[in-house]
């Protein structure tokens, strides 16, 4: 997270740090007792999470409606906090306004590469960065989308933050959780 601040402890009991050999690789978040939502390239879980006051699920959006441009959402992660790639020990957070898909698809920005299954937030100074992928974009307490690297540019207003929206995959998520619930 660039330009953010340390998250207050235990206010985001849904956040997951997906690690490989003890190194943080991706964010993720609990959507059910034994399911973490993240991105395909991120490390999978070895065992179930044990829910408690500090480990809780986060509801995700199921309605197929875009978040209104200008809505201020929040994103948290253990991704890099400087352009030189410093990794934080503690979870960081930042608030970002949603950018309309038309704005985001402008040729000087992501040039028509943002599909209806994606959304954007303003990336001027404050932005997600390497290691934040997989974490949730939370608007009004609901996970609307998952952080993706996109152009791998951080903190440049010409390259807004890109997210994969969750609602288009809600039915698939339910099928996978239902089918594989041990
Ligand atoms: N909002 C943008 C955003 C959001 C989430 C993740 C990222 N991931 C990167 O940017 C990234 C990823 C991998 C290698 C990398 N090398 C470098 C670099 N600058 O050297 C960046 C990266 C960017």
Notes on the structure:
There is one protein chain. The protein has 182 residues and is mainly beta. It is 8% helix and 30% strand. The chain has two helices and ten strands; from the N terminus they run ββββββαββββα. The strands form two sheets. A six-stranded antiparallel β-barrel has the order 5-6-7-10-9-8. A three-stranded antiparallel beta sheet has the order 2-3-4, with no helix packed on it. The longest helix is centred in the C-terminal third of the chain and has 10 residues. Bound molecules: ~{N}4-[3-(aminomethyl)phenyl]-1~{H}-indole-2,4-dicarboxamide (E7E). The site of ~{N}4-[3-(aminomethyl)phenyl]-1~{H}-indole-2,4-dicarboxamide has 13 residues, from loops.
What is the topological layout?
Blueprint: E1 5-6, E2 15-20, E3 23-32, E4 35-37, E5 72-77, E6 92-99, H1 101-104, E7 118-121, E8 136-139, E9 142-148, E10 161-165, H2 170-179
~{N}4-[3-(aminomethyl)phenyl]-1~{H}-indole-2,4-dicarboxamide binds next to loops.
Offer a few descriptive terms:
globular, 182 residues, mainly beta, binds ~{N}4-[3-(aminomethyl)phenyl]-1~{H}-indole-2,4-dicarboxamide, 3-stranded antiparallel sheet
Global mean pLDDT: 95
Proportion in β-strands: 25-35%
Low-confidence stretches: none
Secondary-structure-based class equals: mainly beta
Largest sheet: 6 strands, antiparallel, barrel
Strands side by side in the biggest sheet: 5-6-7-10-9-8
Order of helices and strands: EEEEEEHEEEEH
The count of strands amounts to 10
Number of helices: 2
| Percent of residues in helices | under 10%
Outline: globular
Rg (CA only): 16 Å
Bound compounds: ~{N}4-[3-(aminomethyl)phenyl]-1~{H}-indole-2,4-dicarboxamide
N- to C-terminal separation?
A: 35 Å
